[in-house]
Specification:
Layout: H1 2-6, E1 10-17, E2 24-31, E3 40-41, E4 44-45, E5 52-57, E6 63-69, H2 80-84, H3 94-105, H4 110-120, H5 131-163, E7 168-173, E8 179-185, H6 187-196, E9 201-207, E10 214-221, E11 227-235
Antiparallel strand pairs: 1-2, 2-5, 3-4, 5-6, 7-8, 8-11, 9-10, 10-11
Helix pairs in contact: 3-5, 4-5
């Protein structure tokens, strides 16, 4: 991106639609320092910078540059960290996102993730992400992975049901069809419950490493005083 290489942020300024408002016929992209001094954006006062690119539509729905103002009236960002402060450059590139995803899938802590990414770019100051942005990305990845794993889990349950007719599972949904609890038990466990289900304990001392969600077990004792598991439940909403 030109603005990244030179060292300034951009904003999408004026635009013009065609007659039936179906697509843009003109788009103006300006330096984020454009505008009056009294307007403040992202903690930086604007200094009426005139640098801009004006794009117009062609007849075949392409674009061409009709106006280009190169000169800036302010200092340009030089370091990686300075460039990352521009709101238009806060998005991480796909390679960095893939690396963060790979590290988190292998149970690397958020602190170590940031250290590894920083070393990839030379130093902590040149890192393309802050501590807060790493936390936000990791939380987003966790939600995505959770959704994928729940879907895979349900598919496994369906396969187990075909092999074990006594296998039972249930899903409790919350608002917006989000999953609150996921519970399952085998045919053997149900048979054991019918014989030894007089006393049951519910143990939620287990947590998965990646999601840090409570995993509960319904546990009983048979006539040989051996522990037996009746069912398992994954509590996705902690306050449930």
């Amino acid at each position: 991106m030109y603005s990244w290489e030179i060292g300034f942020g951009i904003i999408y300024n004026r635009r013009r639609m065609n007659d039936d408002k179906s697509y843009r016929s003109m788009q103006e992209i300006c330096c984020h320092q454009g505008g009056s001094d009294s307007r403040v954006q992202a903690g930086t006062k604007k200094v009426r910078c005139k640098a801009r690119i004006k794009l117009l539509r062609t007849d075949d729905d392409g674009w061409y540059i009709s106006e280009f103002v190169k000169e800036h009236n302010h200092e340009l960002a030089e370091s990686y960290a300075e460039k990352r402060e521009c709101p238009s450059h806060k998005q991480l590139d796909q390679n960095t996102l893939d690396m963060i995803r790979y590290l988190r899938e292998n149970d690397v802590s958020q602190t170590k993730v940031r250290c590894i990414i920083s070393r990839m770019f030379g130093s902590l100051g040149d890192a393309p992400c802050t501590k807060r942005s790493v936390r936000t990305i990791c939380n987003q990845l966790k939600r995505e992975q959770m959704d994928n794993d729940v879907i895979k889990k349900i598919e496994i349950f369906k396969e187990m049901k075909e092999k074990d007719p006594g296998f039972q599972w249930s899903v409790e949904l919350g608002e917006n069809s989000t999953i609150k609890t996921l519970m399952w038990c085998s045919g053997k466990s149900r048979a054991q419950y019918s014989c030894f289900g007089d006393v049951i304990t519910f143990d939620t001392t287990y947590c998965t490493n990646f999601y840090n969600m409570p995993f509960g077990l319904f546990v009983g004792v048979n006539n040989h005083f051996q522990s037996i598991i009746y069912a398992g439940v994954l509590i996705i909403e902690r306050n449930h």
